[in-house]
Amino acid sequence: MNTVGIVGVGLIGGSIGRALRETGVKVLGFDNNPERLLEAQSLGALDSTVPSVVDLAAMVDILVIAAPVGFIADIAIESLDAGAPVVTDVGSVKAPIIDAIESLRPDLAFKFVGGHPMAGSEREGLAGSDPGLFIGATWVLTPTPTTDVESFSVVRELVSKLGAQLLVVPPVEHDALVAMVSHLPQLAASTLMDVAVSSDDDQTNLLRLAAGGFRDMTRIASSHPDIWPDICLANRQAIMNALDEYATGIARVRKLIADGNQPELLELFKRARHARRGLLPVTASGEDMIEMLVPIPDRPGVLAEITTLAGSLNINIVDLQISHSAEGGGGVLSLVVSASQASSLESALESTGHTSSRSVIS
Predict the structure, then answer these.
(1) Which domains does the chain show, CATH number per domain?
(2) Mean per-residue pLDDT for 106-134?
(3) Terminus of the chain with fewer CB atoms < 10 Å: N or C?
(4) Cα dihedral sign for 13, 18, 20, 24?
């Protein structure tokens, strides 16, 4: 793979371009915004720009479509018609796109391999691009029975160059999974935020009472709104199925509360806690992980002090979260480390005036 073409140089397209150029791959790009193209080149995401998708398709070994979901199928067909040897995309919906390509271009669809990097950023657009964005992230590929083995191998090589971990699933299964773990959380966060602000005439009080739990759950409500209507409509059925499951769960919880069923509520919270902790990374050796809770003041440099302290002891922080106090003045820092390193970190924290508590993640 010597030359890669990118259509769309926003957050994901720009990150792909910057990462590939660091490996020595030549990257050409097209975007319908000429100013963004020039910015991408100045940021190091592109070696050069190309005036059209058709021109780009004829100049590359693989073409990556990093455009909104609603445009991907049309761009893929245009690229295949123009002779692109291999085409892939980064959209978060797969089955409708692949169905459209296989229906409209059955003789060329074997060159298209659907893809979806499970990576993002709090920052938006090209300015938020990061060449390290995909390192260690899961990158889903969704080949079909018509997919050419050589085309799949080229896309797999691309994923490897970006440092991502490959996961291969069928398109329909992908859409059902992301509906539950990505699209439903976005809808839940946005809806909760909308309900909260609509039900409180005094926004000042709401913000003052919005503690860590509310902030954590609604964090993704601040993501860029423009991409979500297309995603919701493209993955409509899978999202409706996920919403139905969630609504059933909410109704079940409501009944438990209405009935005063404390034992069943406790079991729900225990199951959820156990499942949530299972999402945390595990060590290669399978060693137990320890969560350490450290109260911290609200002052500059405190986070750097603690992480630098861990680094000086060669302690790897597997996961880190901060819960802010609703009253202000500080919060609680959650650090996840391996069991063999927890005591050393605990002693070091104590020596610098920080108290901590810890529990085994199981």
Answers:
(1) 3-169 (3.40.50.720), 174-277 (1.10.3660.10), 289-361 (3.30.2130.10)
(2) 90
(3) C
(4) positive
